[in-house]
Amino acid sequence: MKPIINIALEAGIPESAVDMYGKYKAKLDPDTIRQHVNRPDGKLVLVTAVNPTPAGEGKTLTTIGLSQSLNAIGVRAIAALREPSLGPCFGMKGGATGSGQAQIIPADEINLHFTGDLHAITSAHNLLAAMIDNHLYYGNALDIHPKKILWKRAADMNDRGLRSIVTGIGAGNGEVRESGYVITSASEVMAVLCLSENLADLKVRLSRIIIGYTYSGQPVTAADLNAVEAMTVLLRDAIKPNLVQTLEGTPVIIHGGPFANIAHGCSSVIGTRTALRLGDIAVTEAGFGAELGAEKFMNIKCRQTGLQPDAAVLVVTAKSLKYNGGIPVKELDREDVQSLQLGLVNLRRHLNNLQKSGVPVLVAINHFAGDTDAEIAAIVDECQRLGVPVELSKVWAEGSAGGAALARALVHLLESEVTQYQPLYADELPLTAKIEQVITGIYGGSGAVYSPEAKRTLTELQSNGFGHLPVCMAKTPYSFSDQSKWLGAPEGFMMNISRVSLSAGAGFIVVETGNTMTMPGLPRVPAAERMTLHPDGQIEGLV
Amino acid sequence: MKPIINIALEAGIPESAVDMYGKYKAKLDPDTIRQHVNRPDGKLVLVTAVNPTPAGEGKTLTTIGLSQSLNAIGVRAIAALREPSLGPCFGMKGGATGSGQAQIIPADEINLHFTGDLHAITSAHNLLAAMIDNHLYYGNALDIHPKKILWKRAADMNDRGLRSIVTGIGAGNGEVRESGYVITSASEVMAVLCLSENLADLKVRLSRIIIGYTYSGQPVTAADLNAVEAMTVLLRDAIKPNLVQTLEGTPVIIHGGPFANIAHGCSSVIGTRTALRLGDIAVTEAGFGAELGAEKFMNIKCRQTGLQPDAAVLVVTAKSLKYNGGIPVKELDREDVQSLQLGLVNLRRHLNNLQKSGVPVLVAINHFAGDTDAEIAAIVDECQRLGVPVELSKVWAEGSAGGAALARALVHLLESEVTQYQPLYADELPLTAKIEQVITGIYGGSGAVYSPEAKRTLTELQSNGFGHLPVCMAKTPYSFSDQSKWLGAPEGFMMNISRVSLSAGAGFIVVETGNTMTMPGLPRVPAAERMTLHPDGQIEGLV
Prior knowledge:
Two copies of one chain form a homodimer. By secondary structure, chain A is α/β, with parallel strands linked by helices. Chain A folds into three domains: 4-116 and 238-416, Rossmann fold (3-Layer(aba) Sandwich), CATH 3.40.50.300; 117-234, Domain 2, N(10)-formyltetrahydrofolate synthetase (2-Layer Sandwich); 431-513, Roll (Formyltetrahydrofolate synthetase, domain 3), CATH 3.10.410. Chain A is built from 18 helices and 26 strands. In chain A, the strands form seven sheets. In chain A, strands 1, 2, 3, 4, 5, 6, 14, 15, 16, 17, 18 and 19 form a twelve-stranded mixed beta sheet that branches. In chain A, strands 7-12-13 form a three-stranded antiparallel beta sheet, with no helix packed on it. Chain A is globular, with a radius of gyration of 23 Å. Chains A, B: One of its GO terms (biological process) is tetrahydrofolate interconversion. Chains A, B: InterPro entries: Formate_THF_ligase (IPR000559), P-loop_NTPase (IPR027417). Chains A, B: It comes from Paenibacillus bovis. Chains A, B: This is Formate--tetrahydrofolate ligase.
C-alpha cells in the first residue's frame, strides 16, 4: 500500500488540497483542486449491470478493475465509487470494496468508520430530529402536527427493533409520538449531500427538506426550524470527497452512498466532478441493475447537474444469464448454454434501454472460474449479432491484465462514438406520465396501478408545485417488474404503485412499489459474532 | 497553528507513532511510543477545583494555561484532557477547549467530530444493543428476560424524546419492550475505554459488561452475546489517544470523556500514561469539584491502574467563594470580602480532603477581571494560614506569562514534597462501608439513608462477588451534600441513596443520590439555531 499522499501527488492533486486521515486515506478539497488543476474534464463512464442475482455480478469489482486496466494501458483513469455503510458489515454483507485482484484498500478502514462521513450524516439527521421534538416541547410555535411528522431518526446499524418506536414517554420528556429509525444510507441528508454541488447548494437543499406538516396541512421545513446552518456545520468535512487506492495503486474517490431504492444510489456529484477534473476517464457506478441504477443516474443525477455519461459499461455474467433463464442458484455452476440463451432476454432489454438513452454501450462479461467457453461464446455472439462491443473481463483473477482488452475497447468506443445522451422524460411531463414512461420505456410494463393514497399524493404534489421533479422508483432490483420472481424480461405487466413521497431536499419524488425496507435487521448469526481483532490490529471476518 | 506533526516531533514522539487526521489533529500509537521513547515517566499532576458555581471556575482553563506556563519556564509538560461530546455543543454548552489565552485548538474540530472516537463508541454501544434484540428475535437461547434488559442505546445528541422509548413495534420488528437512550459520554463503553490499559484489557472489560438478566436472574454479559470482538473492532482506532495543541503550541492529549456522575469523569488511562511517558509533568483534570472528580480520580482510576498523583492543583475563584458565602449569581461582580470569607469553608474542606489523601496541594486562584485586591488577599491569607502554597493565575488574560508563578510553585512543590497518596478505603471494605466512608470522610455528612431498592441491590452485589469494587458516587456537583442549594460546607446531613447499579465492565458500583440525567435535552433556543457556517469554512456560534 502506497502512502495516500503519493497517490494524490501522482494523480496531480496539489498537496494543499489533501487532508490525511491516517496514512492511507485522505479528504480532498474540491475547490482547491478546481483552482489548481487546469485541464479539461475527462470522459464520464458509467458502469452498470443486468439485474442482480444471488450469484453476484461484480459491478463494483468491474469498476475497480477497469480503472486499474485503463491506467495499465496508459490512460489516466480515476474511479468514483459509493461509500459503504458500517451497519451492514456487522450483519451479512461483506463490505463494498471489490475482491480478488480488483480491490480498494484499506478495505477494513473503508468499511468501518472511514473518514467519518456517515457518522456526520447521522449526526446532522439526528440534530434535526432533536430540534423537531424540542420545538414541540417548547410550545410548538410552528403548529406542527405531531402525528404528521415524517422525519425519523437515523442510525448506521442494522437494528430492526428501531424500525417503529414510540418516543417521548415519561414526564418531562416531550410529546409522546410514533416514530422510527432509518439506516443512515436511507437518510435524505445522504441523498442531499450526494446531489450537492458545494456547501451553498447543500444549504439550499437542506433548507428544502420537509419534516412534516402543520395542523392546517402546510409543509414544515428544516429551514423553518433554523436547523440548516448547524446541520451544515456538522457536514462541513463530510462534503469533501475521500481518496483511497486500489491494490494496483489506482486512485479511487469514494464519497457518499445513498440507498438505491428510496434514493438515487449514486456516489456524490462532488466526487464525480473531482474524478472528471483529475482523470482522462472517470469510471463510476450506480446501484442495482441498469433499469434502476442507470435510469436514476441519468434521470436524477445527470438531470440535476448537467453531467452526462460518455459511455456505459454493462456488466453481465454467464451465471446471471442462466439464472434469468430459469436455473436455480444451486445449479448455476453447471454449463447450460440453452438456459443462458433464454436469459439473454435480460441482457437485451438492458442494452436496448441504454441505447435508447443515446449512450454508447460496451458489454463486460465478468468472468467466473467455472464459466465454459461455450457459455462465454454465446454471450459474445449475441452482442456481436446486436452490434454491441463486448469483452471478457478477468479482473478478479488477474487485476489490470485481465481487463486490458476491456479497457482498450472502452477507449476505442469513447474515441469513435459521441454520446447522444438525453434524459428519458422532460421536466414538464406530469408525475404520473413520468412514472408510466419509466414503466413502459424501461421496465417493459404496460402501465401503473396506483393505490388511492399514492394517487392522492401525486395529485397533491403536482398541484403544490413539485410536478417538475424527476421520479425515484423504489422497486425490487431482481426483476424489471415489481415481482422479484419474474426474471428475464417480463412484459405486459401493470406495476403497483403503493406509496409516493417527496424528497424535497434531494429534489425527487419517491415512488414505491410494495414496502421498502429502510432499516435492515441482523441475520440469525450476524457477521459480528464471527469477527476477531488480532493483537496486531488485523481484523478477521469483516470483509 | 503549527502542523501537528511538528508538535509531535518536538514532543519526542516518533513519526511512526503518528496518524494524521487533517493537518492539526493526530492519533498516537501508544505502543510505538512506549517502545521508542526511553525515559522515566514524568510526574502526574491533577487539577481539580472547589464546588462548581454558575460563574465558572476555569479548571480546564487552568489545566491548559498551567501546561503552557510550565513549558514557558522550561519544563516539558503535556496536558491530558477529556474529549468533548458533540451533542451538548448544539444545546447550551460552549465546548470544552478552554478560553482566552489558554485554549486548545482547533477548537471547532475538537468540539465536533474530532477523530471520531465518540462516534466509534456510539457504534460499539449500539451494535451490542442491536445484537441483544436480535438474540430475542431469533429464539432467545440465553433466556434473557426482555423486561430485565439494562442496556439502552446511545446517541451523541441532546434529545430528551429518546430518554424513554418503546422499541420493536410492528410485525417482524422483534420484541416490543421499554428502553431508552443515554448520551454517548454516559455509555459504559466510554467508561470502559477510558479505564482500559490496552486492547486486551478493553476486551476483558467489554466482556464483563452486564446487559441484563435471564428469567432465572442470572446476569447476561456482552461476552455471552459474542459481541466483544466486533465491539473491539469498532473501537480499534478510538482506543488511541489524540494529539492537539494549545494556542502556544503546547502538546495536549485529548482522549475519552466519561460522565462525572454515573461514571468516573476522567480522561483515558492510555492518554494519561502517554502524557507521563512524554512529559516531565503530565497535567490532567477530573470532572466537577474535588469531592467528586478528585475522589473518583484517586479511588477509581488510580486504584485500578496503580497510577498516583504527585500533586494536586486546586482551582478556586473569588466569585466561587462569594457564591458559597451566600451571594447570588447576579451580584458576584461586587466586591464582598466578608461573604468571600464565609465561603472559604468550601475551600477549606476540599483542601482538607486532598491533604487526607496524602497528595501535596497547591491552590490556584483563577483570576477574573473584576476581582479586587482585597478579595485575592483574603484567599491568599487563608491559604498561608493553613500552610498551603497558593498562587494567582492569570492564564485567561495573559497565557503562559500569567501562570508562570503558578508553574514555578508547582515545580517547587514537586521537588520538595513526595506524595503519600493512599486511597480512601480498602478494596475489602463492604460496599455500604465504602459509601459511608466517602460521605463522612469527604462530603462531611453523617451517614447514608438507603432506599429499599438500593439496599437490596447492595446486598445482592455484595453477595454476588462485586463487593471488592470501588463506588462511583452520582450526586449534585454544586454541594458537598445531595442538596444542590446547600453551599459552603454543610455538615451532619444524611445522604439519600436512591439507586445502586453495577458497571461491571468499567469496574465500579454506581451509587445514585436522586435521579441522574443521562440524556440531556436541548434548551428553548438551542445553540444550533445561532450557528453559521461561513463560505470560508469558519464556524460562528459553536464555541
